[in-house]
Amino acid sequence: MTVPDTPYQVRRTPTQYRASRQIERILDAAARVVAEKGFAATTTADIAKAATVSIGSVYRYFPDKTAVMRAVLDRNTRRFSERVGEHVAEHEDDDGWRAAVEHAHTVYVDMCRADNGFRAVSGAGLAAGELESTGFDDPLAAVFAELLVARFDFVDTPALRATILQCVTTADVLTRLAFRLDAVGHQDTLDQTRRIIVDLVASHAPA
User: Fold this and answer.
1) Which tens digits make up the pLDDT trace of 49-108?
2) Are 200 and 170 in contact (CB under 8 A)?
């Protein structure tokens, strides 16, 4: 059986399929525990228990819980980027940048609804404020910016990057509000969020 690629920063690269699956199980467990308890209250032992592995197995691949959550963040970003990229590639001829931005936000909301790991380290999740103090950046902003530059001829400038960061931050805050108002996301708040981020991006759109 082929060993799946492990694109995360780990102490030891798995050489067997079982070890690769164990890493995924650790990340799944970390996401669940952080979503339930918050990042500060979560311990490495909690993660090991939820993953039904020894704490030594966690330390074999990750030096601490922050490294585990960085791997969760990497995995979330890859999944988000792949879903958005696939949609843009399929609809490149008939969808413009507005539709791509709207779809990217829809993907973000869907992942918040369905994926504990995504919610746990996104702005809509319990860990958002706690993770900021550990030096976590916002890779979703980079995904947005690269999409607009590569697919829709936006000019890559510091001003564009700043605007995209504003978009992601605004989407984080309002999406958190949407899930506070309704367990599955308050639809009017989500619709308003999409309109706001499209308006922000519009000022940088190519003529």
Assistant:
1) 999 999 999 998 899 988 888 888 888 888 888 888 887 777 665 568 998 899 889 998
2) yes
H helix count then E strand count, the chain = 10, 0
Amino acid at 84: V
Distances from the Cα of 27 to the Cαs of 53, 54, 58, in angstroms?
12, 14, 10
Tell me the C-alpha distance between 188 and 25, whole Å. 36
149, with CB counted inside 10 A (0-12, 13-18, 19+), is middle
Alpha-helical (H) ranges within 44-186 are 44-51, 55-61, 65-90, 97-114, 116-121, 128-132, 139-152, 158-181
The pTM for the full model equals: 0.78
Kindly report the CATH number that applies to the domain delimited by 17-202. 1.10.357.10
Smallest CA-to-CA distance from 84 within 150, 172, 180 is with 150
